[in-house]
Automatic annotation (TrEMBL):
Record's keyword annotation contains Nuclease: no
InterPro entries according to UniProt: Bact_solute-bd_prot1, SBP
Pfam families to which the protein is assigned, alphabetical: SBP_bac_1
Keyword Transmembrane helix: no
Keywords: Cell membrane, Lipoprotein, Membrane, Palmitate, Signal, Sugar transport, Transport
Transmembrane annotation, as ranges: none
Source organism superkingdom: Bacteria
Protein name: Multiple sugar transport system substrate-binding protein
Signal sequence residues: 1-26
Amino acid sequence: MTTTHRTHRARRLTAPAAALTLLVLAGCGGSSTDDGGSDGGPTGTADDPVEITFWSWLPDIQTTIDLFEETHPEIDVKLENVGVGTDQYTKIQNAVDAGSGGPDVAHMTYDAIPSFALTGALADLAQHGGEDIPDTFLPAVVSLVQQGDAIYGVPQDFGPGVMYYRTDVFDAAGVEVPTTWAEYATAAEAIHAGDPNRYITYLDPGLADAAYMGLWQLDAAPWTLEGESDLTLDLGSEASLRWADYWDGLNHGGLTIESVQGSDEWFRQLGEGQIATWVVGAWGLQALTGVVPQNEGLWRVAPMPVWDDGDTATSQFGGSGTVVLEQSEHKDAATTFALWMNSDPVAVESLKNDQGLLPTTNAAWEDPAFLDEEIAYLGGQQARQVFAESARNSVTTWRWLPFQPYVGSVYKDTVGQAISGKTSLADGFAAWQDRVAEYAQQQGFTVTTD
């Protein structure tokens, strides 16, 4: 079902004058003007605004839209929720195939952007006022929306990799917080030896993101796409097997517990200290505070462990951007909205406070008030200092495939089987690669396997 949410301007003009003044002063920052270019669509005015449609599943995004319209009377934004993730992407693809019927602007996870960019469905925002995106946003996220000189989205949020851990569990085991994966394995042994019902972490047979996160940090390049159709798969590389062999050791040694991330059982395990760490994107804090509030003060955050002493490389888990469809008749206005929503200081505050999203602009991560805020749930820790370190050190060479959703969908039947059966993850990777290669060839890609 399609849900449409419109808020009439007359209603919004009742906001206090002081707030409106603040919005007007901040409204021009980080956005471009719709210059009515030949393929960018007509320019609207306050008396005759251009209307653009925005598809998003974020629950309270209308709050941010209202702020935009206060300062941009020449653009009306119609919000529609047509489904989450794949449901929305299917409707976008149907509109692309039909040549019309899609939104002007859409919320899209980073792993889905390449598939639509490859087929020409997304506008190059550098041609519509977005040429400063590489200078405005963190390099770690720009790399996820940029292909060559083309920019196919505005970064909105992201998940720099960190490690949340239970201080009480580590204290009881008498071990230090690990900084390397070798130390992490040592801590796993001590924690489980001290209490057989406790584990360093969990393995989810269906969570491909865990493998992505590890391979990303190792700069393993499990897939490389040259041009539009030449694909090389290498899930048997030395770096890939280093990840597989490491987790084989913990899994076969009984030092991890199998659990499904996000399930009630999994949250219970976190809440009771049965799972001692969660290596995830920084957004994990929102899940902890929302579902296990009784744990306030017990958790802290540390940098993601590294593979070798002296390493700093991290990776990411999760995140999304805002894209503009090529079929839009108002690409300039759509780009103006997408840029403002994700880079203007007022908008960034709204996304942070109303959506719980982690901002992606350089300016936000250079703001001492933002970085130094003490997070009560984490015992007053200045957690964003840790997030910022991870963001700076995130490997920027990672790329998603044009059919990444399929890659993730067959993880459970290949690597996941190895996790559950406690067999070789290297063999699971080989089976995963075979499935991906077969599918890619069916889609017309020329596939080379190393």
